Amino acid sequence: MREYGVGFRTVKAALESVWPEPRKKPRPRGTRLDAYKPLIDQMLRADLDAPRKQRHTVRRIFDRLLDEHGAEAVTYPMVRAYVAGRRPQIAVEAGRGVVHAFIPQSHRPGAEAEVDFGDVKVRLAGEQVTCFVFAMRLSYSGKAVHRVFASCGQEAFLERPRPRSQRAGGVPTGKARYDNLRSAVSRVLSSRSRVENERWTGETGTDSYRLASARAARAQSAASG
User: Fold this and answer.
1) How far apart are the first and last CA of the chain?
2) Which residues touch 15 (CB under 8 Å, ≥6 apart)?
3) What is the structure's pLDDT at 41?
4) Residue 213 three-state SS
5) Which residues, in sequence order, are CB contacts of 150 under 8 Å at separation 6+?
6) In 3-state terms, what secondary structure has residue 176?
7) Does residue 197 register a pLDDT over 50?
8) How many C-beta atoms lie closer than 10 Å to residue 78's C-beta?
9) Which residues fall within 8 angstroms of residue 184, CB to CB, at 6 or more apart?
10) How confident is the model at residue 204 (pLDDT cuts 50, 70, 90)?
11) Considering only CA atoms, which of 77, 105, 53, 108 is closest in space to residue 214?
12) Residue 116 in 3-state DSSP?
């Protein structure tokens, strides 16, 4: 354990469960604003049915606390910070706000991969030049393959993905997501329908996985959400 810098408790916890224990949230500390929070909430709830120009600003709430409730110990930054977080919560509680949520991703082992190009500065023959890195990452394990090209043109894009997949331990059985498919797509039909480039189809037609557009997937998710 000393060799890897891991303590006994960490190893014991890992043997007991593959999932780490939930992080304990510290108990919130009391503030001078606590006694006035119900009053602020009441003002914010009243604003839900008030005309836009008659709703409480932070300054108006702060002034009312001072004038009507003698909140001399309360400062303007305290009220501003509380209102900024509480106003959208009250709107959600009333069924009028936007609920922020996310869907956790799950991937089957060896089923999917993600592919993208990125530029990198390298020193070649004593000169600094811009090259382009092809990166393919298996979605489940995170194992990745990287190759450097002089350009990110179609000739680099169409180089067969199979050798790269073999370096990653095998060919994905499902699909590979490409972030930018302009070199592989000749026509966009709908959100997920594409007419693939003949050169791309000829290069990848024998591979066991099919391509997918990450940009189209993001657009589809946004439309369904």
Assistant:
1) 46
2) none
3) 97
4) strand
5) 131, 132, 156
6) strand
7) yes
8) 17
9) 157, 158, 178, 196, 197, 200, 211
10) low
11) 105
12) strand
pLDDT, average across residues 208-213: 50
- The whole-angstrom separation of Cα 73 and Cα 65 is 10
Distances (CA, A) of 88 to 18, 57, 62: 36, 14, 18
Please tell me the distance from the alpha carbon of residue 89 to that of residue 86, in angstroms, as a whole number.
5
Beta-carbon contacts of 147 under 8 Å, excluding residues fewer than 6 positions away, are: 133, 134, 164
Q: For residues 51 and 202, give the distance between their C-alpha atoms in angstroms, rounded to a whole number.
A: 62
Structure tokens at 47: 């604003």
Q: Where are the beta strands (DSSP E) in 15-98?
A: none
Cβ distance 178 to 211 under 8 Å?
yes
At 203, the amino acid letter reads: E
Give the CA dihedral 106, 110, 115, 121, nearest 10 degrees: 110
Is residue 112 within 8 Å of 177, Cβ to Cβ? yes
Site of tokens 């469960």: 17
Among positive and negative, which fits the CA dihedral 107, 109, 114, 118?
positive
Eight-state DSSP code of residue 48? T
> How far is the C-alpha of 9 from the C-alpha of 136, rounded, in Å?
36
